[in-house]
Specification:
The longest helix is centred in the last third of the chain and has 25 residues. The strands form 3 sheets. Strands 1, 2, 3, 4, 5 and 7 form a 6-stranded antiparallel β-sheet that branches. The termini are far apart. The relative contact order is 0.10. This protein is mainly beta. The chain contains 2 helices and 12 strands, in the order E-E-E-E-E-E-E-E-E-H-H-E-E-E. It is found in: Membrane. It comes from Sinosuthora webbiana. Its main location: membrane.
């Protein structure tokens, strides 16, 4: 497949040539097409050649990718064919790239197979965070299940009140009977202990 641009600036007869191949794969039981190589030609000679990687789709589909480029920031689907080639001097980027090599009907692209992988970085990060949250939840449930009540080990009994013993002679003037129905009650008045009702 050749895209002819004619004369562009100093480039005479500038052409982008896409070499497509088709193969039959028994595992998928259908033909697939692949972009094998991309060539840049001007002045009637090949100036740069890039090998294409990962650009393939079933023959009845088209291939679509947001960026097909030789730059690393776009995953570099186009790789220079040789270190000695002039392709090292070129930076090629196709934006909103879509291609279909075979079985084109009525001049329209067929359903597109996109280059975005299922496990994109965002999806992988979401899966990792979900795994971390599940581990934290499992640990919390484990701790709750094995939580033991404090009643088994400690008996919560109120300690008896402690009163300092006082001599009867000291208590004689400090106890005052309280009026109560039926029971005899006393109010102890002592600055050291405060008011205590018995």
């Amino acid at each position: 497949l050749s895209l002819k641009f004619g004369d562009i600036g100093n480039l005479k007869e500038f052409v982008i040539r896409l070499l497509l191949t088709t193969s039959y794969y028994q595992l998928s039981v259908q033909n697939w097409f692949s972009l094998h190589r991309l060539q840049l030609l001007y002045n009637h000679s090949v100036q740069a050649t890039f090998n294409a990687t990962g650009i393939h789709a079933p023959a009845t589909y088209s291939f679509h990718c947001e960026h097909v480029s030789s730059l690393q920031r776009y995953d570099a689907l186009l790789i220079p064919s040789s270190a000695n080639d002039l392709s090292q001097l070129w930076e090629v980027t196709f934006i909103d790239f879509q291609i279909q090599g075979f079985n084109v009907q009525e001049g329209h692209f067929a359903y597109a197979r996109d280059c975005a992988s299922f496990f994109s970085p965002a999806i992988l990060m979401g899966l990792v965070m979900s795994l971390v949250l599940l581990l934290v939840l499992a640990y919390a449930l484990h701790m709750l299940i094995h939580l033991k009540s404090l009643d088994r080990h400690y008996e919560c009994k109120a300690s008896p009140a402690y009163f300092a013993q006082m001599k009867d002679s000291d208590m004689g003037d400090e106890k005052e009977p309280l009026r109560n129905s039926g029971n005899e009650s006393y109010e102890l008045r002592n600055q050291q202990f405060g008011k205590i009702y018995i």
